[in-house]
Amino acid sequence: MITSGIWFDDYNFIYSIKNRGIYVYNAKDRAYKTLKTGEGDFRLTSVYGNYLNYDRTSMEVNLD
Length: 64
Hints:
The protein is mainly β.
């Protein structure tokens, strides 16, 4: 079950699953990628530039 989700750009949807991790789905290529795994709520709050904010922290997102 998806905890939260946010569009990174026109094709990439970033979503999280509580206590599992943060993932991205590319709607154009129909491909999945894991960005982070572990324990936590992983509540996504915003995207600014190449940074994803979640759970009062942030991480740089590189989708290349």
